[in-house]
Specification:
Layout: H1 3-15, H2 17-27, H3 30-42, H4 50-64, H5 71-79, H6 93-120, H7 130-138
């Protein structure tokens, strides 16, 4: 465990808290959360719009601390973004759409944990709660 590197990450998170909070409010809004999830169950191409929120969160993660993000997470993002609706997608709705929803929820989880622990901690902890440990995994620090 490199506590100095964890502190650098925490400092950067704290510096970016206004942007983090703003994005968190945005991705929790009706049009960026409720509606695209509803659209998934409704079978509407409008569920594809959720990809924008996912990519916006990933971009913020990179802005907060510019280093490669966790490979597992990035594979989830890769499988759930850069998709354009085609009529044939309707025949394979779950196979094509669920990865988009999954990527959104993983990104949203990390955004929530970054905000929660960015507000909570003054110093990087030596005893690491699960949510902060997940953030450290996101940045390949664990």
């Amino acid at each position: 465990m490199n506590i100095a590197e964890h502190q650098k990450l925490l400092n950067s998170i704290k510096k970016n808290l206004p942007d983090i909070k703003g994005l968190l409010n945005g991705v929790n809004s009706h049009w960026n959360y409720e509606d695209p999830i509803y659209r998934y169950y409704h079978g509407s191409y409008k569920s594809y719009y959720i990809q924008h929120s996912t990519l916006t969160m990933v971009n913020l993660f990179t802005k907060i601390y510019n280093m490669p993000l966790n490979t597992q997470f990035m594979n989830i993002v890769k499988n759930g973004t850069n998709k354009r609706w085609k009529e044939a997608d309707n025949k394979n709705w779950d196979r094509i759409n669920r990865p988009m929803i999954e990527a959104y929820f993983h990104a949203r989880f990390f955004l929530e944990m970054i905000y929660k622990y960015g507000k909570k901690f003054r110093k990087a902890p030596e005893v690491v709660p699960s949510g902060w440990a997940a953030v450290l995994y996101l940045y390949n620090m664990r």
